[in-house]
Amino acid sequence: MKCVKVSLRKRELPSGKITLYLDYYPPIRDVSTNKCHRHEYLGIYLLKSPKTRAEKAVNTEKLLQAEAIRAERELSILRGKLDFLDRSKLKMDFLAYFRNQLDSHDQKWTKVYDHFYNYVGGHCMVGDLNAGMCSGFREYLLGARQLAHPERTLSRNSAAGYWSTFRGLLAIAYKEKILGENINDYLDRIDTVETRREYLTLEELRRLAETPCDIPVLKNASLFSCLTGLRASDVLALEWKNIVKNADGAWCMRLRTEKTDTEATLPLSDEALSFCGEFSSGLVFKGLKKHQMQKPLEKWIKAAGIEKHITFHCFRHTFATLQVAQGTDIYTVQHLLTHKNVGTTQIYADIVDEKMRAASERIKIRDD
Fold this sequence. Notes:
Strand order of the largest sheet: 1-2-3
InterPro entries: Arm-DNA-bind_5, DNA_brk_join_enz, Integrase-like_cat_sf, Integrase_catalytic, SAM-like_dom, Tyrosine_recombinase_XerCD
Organism: Candidatus Cryptobacteroides faecigallinarum
Keywords: DNA recombination
Largest sheet: 3 strands, antiparallel
Shape: elongated
Order of helices and strands: EEEHHHHHHHHHEEEHHHHH
GO molecular function: DNA binding
Radius of gyration: 27 Å
Pfam families: Arm-DNA-bind_5, Phage_int_SAM_5, Phage_integrase
Mean pLDDT: 86
Strand content: 5-15%
Structural class: alpha+beta
């Protein structure tokens, strides 16, 4: 293959913005169609006259992204890999491809799909995907409204989680050769912010257990989560076939967690099992609905005289924090929570350390 020079060019649009494109000289030929291609528009746009430091920084970042794509294209041509020219794939409906991925992933993927659908206006071909377009979706998420509550914006951490999921989709599409290049190489992550992990103390948990709840199955599922650390999605999906006896005759749960898609065998205490009711078939917590984990849960928490903002997920934090406080080693807690990284579990040890430090400061001999 003869040498091809790939240059980064700019062209001013009627709108006043500047579009970036690649210029191939001589033109490169797509062997599948026998057509030659000279220009490739990247979908990356610059401000014509940036005024502020922030605007200049954005222009610089976009130029770096475009230059990275230019270099990647040049390497691909040198290696004889011209997948990025496959026009048949470029016309493939990317939204349809995205929809087909939803059945094999958790509910978060559906939310990301809905946001991406809104971002692209219900129309997106594979050929529309490039670093500029995907970076635009990143910016969209940082200011997007919640789907269920349009009056609220997405939290920073939700945006980070959705963006990570979308990048996971791009990685799958690249692996399956739907995309001719790994667009993730040109995309920045969204950093999360540390949030307060609320939980119940042992005294609060016992008080909650003694408080009547209008929805008995909600109460049983909540206390079960406090004793097992299961996420809401896994509690909702738990079936009787998942509860078995292990080799030594003790009860355990064998399940695949929905969020991390991890196979796990977790011990089940007699007290936790007692909240499941009589052995049966199908779902363990029959009649439990996701919406009950919101307003009805808040009402029950308030009736127990607990002023903290407790969500169902806080029961998982409760389990982890109480386990560490009672002396369970961090690696055992990591296994019980099915965390892939012990660093995630370490947060609970830090919470306990803070509580111990606060307790040590309460008794003083001298007045300050």
